[in-house]
Design the sequence.
């Protein structure tokens, strides 16, 4: 178990009670705009190469120095450490993008059911690079639902569902109790991997962009035996359950593309376990 920092903080108290905490200031509005501009410039550079665009959106903190700095930002690490302790790895990071007028949505689900990890010493930080509102399709959380572990899911593979398998809870969700996760650009939310959460479509003429960062304690490991590639961002790793990737030395370097390719191959085996090969997509997040 990862040693926790003192729990006498609003973050730790809210997280233990509700399974989430928000909003948490991380970036200024200007910093969020700069990061969005960096992403969109990289997207333009990858235009016409579907695989590279997919890897960019799935591994930004390994390919873009600005996002490598974000996952290591002191305000991020401070919040995460109060939840899972001072020793921190980034298991993955990736964008959730809803284009203007997009029908894309995220069904009600729990994250940890599909990640193949052996525990729940994990927290997902979701950083808004553009405003997350009801109209743009913000996340919704069901308070306290993180206490319900390993709830049955079904795979829909619905074309507009941003999740890898279109996975959704196979139980009734009390949507009337759900909380809307409203964030300004530069703010973050933090949620537990067993929390029921979802999001709706973007009905506005503006792009909605957020980046999800999945932090874990080094004591965690993959039940499949895979030694995934992770970023070591704080404290120590006394376990060696994962291979550490160095922070990117530059912008979209050849070595970092190779790290991303290696990791996505292993992740597919974990995330799509039991799924027919023809249903597997390179990247459903858009």
Sequence:
């Amino acid at each position: 178990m990862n040693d926790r920092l003192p729990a006498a903080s609003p973050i730790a108290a809210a997280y233990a009670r509700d399974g989430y905490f928000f909003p948490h200031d991380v970036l200024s509005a200007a910093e969020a705009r700069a990061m969005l501009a960096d992403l969109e410039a990289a997207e333009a550079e990858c235009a016409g190469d579907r695989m590279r665009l997919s890897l960019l959106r799935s591994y930004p903190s390994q390919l873009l120095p600005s996002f490598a700095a974000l996952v290591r930002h002191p305000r991020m690490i401070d919040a995460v450490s109060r939840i899972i302790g001072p020793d921190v790895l980034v298991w993955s990071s990736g964008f959730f993008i809803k284009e203007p007028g997009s029908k894309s949505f995220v069904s009600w689900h729990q994250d940890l059911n599909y990640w193949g990890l052996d525990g729940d010493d994990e927290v997902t930080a979701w950083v808004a690079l553009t405003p997350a509102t009801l109209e743009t399709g913000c996340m919704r959380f069901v308070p306290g639902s993180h206490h319900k572990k390993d709830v049955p899911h079904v795979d829909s593979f619905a074309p507009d569902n941003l999740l890898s398998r279109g996975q959704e809870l196979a139980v009734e969700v009390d949507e009337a109790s759900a909380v809307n996760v409203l964030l300004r650009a530069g703010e973050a939310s933090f949620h537990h991997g067993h929390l029921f959460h979802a999001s709706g479509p973007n009905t506005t003429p503006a792009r909605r962009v957020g980046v999800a960062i999945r932090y874990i304690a080094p004591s965690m490991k993959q039940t499949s035996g895979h030694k995934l590639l992770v970023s070591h961002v704080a404290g120590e790793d006394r376990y060696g359950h994962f291979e550490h990737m160095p922070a990117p030395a530059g912008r979209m370097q050849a070595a970092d593309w190779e790290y991303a390719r290696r990791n996505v191959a292993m992740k597919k085996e974990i995330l799509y376990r039991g799924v027919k090969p023809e249903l597997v997509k390179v990247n459903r997040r858009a």
Summary: DSSP finds seven helices and 13 strands in the chain. The domain at 10-279 is CATH 2.60.120.620 (Jelly Rolls). The chain has one domain: 10-279.
